[in-house]
Amino acid sequence: MTHNLAPIRTLGLAALVLAALPCAVLAQTPSTNPSGDTPFSSMAIARDEADACRVLKPPADLAETAYLRNGYRAILRILIAEAALASESCTCLLDQFTWDQALTALPRFQTSDNPRLPFNVLELYAKADALEAQVVEACAE
User: Fold this and answer.
1) What's the pTM value of the predicted model, to 2 decimals?
2) 122-126 LR contacts (CB < 8 Å, sep 24+)
């Protein structure tokens, strides 16, 4: 004796879809709008004014590995901080620099002939942090 289960499966699927409808209605699309009525489901954080001059993550096509991209990001931070100190400017100079400048400055920061590890990223980040701290200190006076 054989039983056809197709109608039972169809009925089960229909019940599942109907049970999920209230959840779909309650779901909200996340938003980057920093207004006070932003739903909790949105984890996007609006950028602070202080972050407006922060060097963002480099584009993926800048270098093949995250290690290299992070190094170029640190080099760009160093170049910007050095320019701010040299010009005694307290304005954001980020828009005056490009990723190409970081690539061009590589020989100055290169510590190895290994193309996959041409520099020490931790040392570059430490240098960038120190220079940025000098800029903040100079601008606070």
Assistant:
1) 0.65
2) 124/71, 124/74, 124/75, 124/78, 125/70, 125/74
